[in-house]
Amino acid sequence: MKHSSETTRHRTRHRTRPRIRRPRRGSVFAATAVLTVTVAAAPVAVPGPPPAAPAPPVRAPALPANPAYGALAPCALIPGEGLQMTEGLPTGPGYAPSAGTVKALTLMIDFPDIKGRGTARKRYAEFFPQTSRWFKRSSYGRLKYRSTAPIKHWLRMPHSFRSYGIKRGSPFEPGYRRLVADIAKVAGPKVDFSRYDLVNVLVTPNAGPPAARAVLSVTYSGNQRAPVADGVPLANVSFVYSRQDDGSGTLSKTGYRVLPHENGHVFGLPDLYTRRGGESAGHWDIMSEDWGAGNDLLAWHKWKLGWLGAGQVDCVARPGITRRALRPLGRAGGTKLIFVPVSKYAGYAVEARTNEGNDEAVCKPGVLVSWVDTQVDSGRGPITVVDSTPGSGGCTDERNVHPGLSDAAFTPGETFTGGALGTGVRVRVTERDSRGDYRVEITRYASGGGRG
Ligand SMILES: [Zn+2]
């Protein structure tokens, strides 16, 4: 990641590497990933927090108590400090609102040296209305995403693509700052930027390398030093380059998914993929993998975005046994998230995932357990999905779906046992009931200081 030229006040999101799994042409991946990959020992895939979890103290630490969350306060993990982006609640100021009607301005741009390929309208149609539908479905109607493209043709930038110096991992300064300023200048006569919550810039797909070689798409969110247009800083801007084409012929159906990912940053969500790809959260969240078959967001992200009602989240902050039914995320209503906090910053999330709604790639439906740590930065694995079958090759043959975690969910009869920071956690999946909900029994207990 190249953040050296920026202050930490710039919440800058980069997708610095392609997260594409190309079993038939793996050399493409290897050739581009080699610059950033650090070889590390594979973590042992056992149920429980990842090795990155904080060292256990002697006593169970205090739980958070943000009064705005009422009875859920112990589960509203506070944001980690000094991070670019955090899983903590609530999302800080400067990001776009993620519930209610959200107005997106979408512009299609090209350059004097890279003229638009195809029409701008067609470029727009690669992403809309699919992106709006994805958000509607994922948010259970709580996010009404309204995209407007007031300029129907390619918006020609005054300078060459080359002159902006855009590469994978480019920081906001100076190239993107100039590009955003130029966009504001050129679109200015026809656009009132103050009427929008976020901006999408769909770059002509022939600018820059194919996405399979290097993903340039990027979002700069919450950047208060961004150029100002119509009195507002253009702080929440998602740029989309190229096409996420894996050669499987599904581009027209799945290629839009880079935009919900980038907009996720505008709404304050960190990246869940790491330098090692989707090994932390697999295909269970679009912030982890956004190529290929459809996926949803983890329940924690839905809560963070304001898409779950208070009655849809259960907080298990005290020792004892809790029995609940979890409604799969792909359906509306019901309990969506049970959270077991072990500190102010970390805990276990429990949710049900099936092959429904935006979740198209689920091959082993069941109850997913994941470890959330708000002190882990974006791109370093702030959420780690627990694998119920460590060491298995998974159950998917879909391209671009992390195979090892594809069968991570726990099915009826299976039990997760883990714990951290003096708290033990057991999640037993008892049955899938006649409504299709998963019944779980969660036991929270003092585990004597160590990690279970
Ligand atoms: Zn990202």
UniProtKB/TrEMBL annotation:
It comes from the Bacteria. GO terms for molecular function: metallopeptidase activity. Residues 10-24 have a biased composition (Basic residues). Residues 1-41 form the signal peptide. Coiled coil: none annotated. The keyword Glycosyltransferase does not apply. Residues 1-24 are annotated as: Disordered. Keywords: Hydrolase, Metalloprotease, Protease, Signal. This is M6 family metalloprotease domain-containing protein.
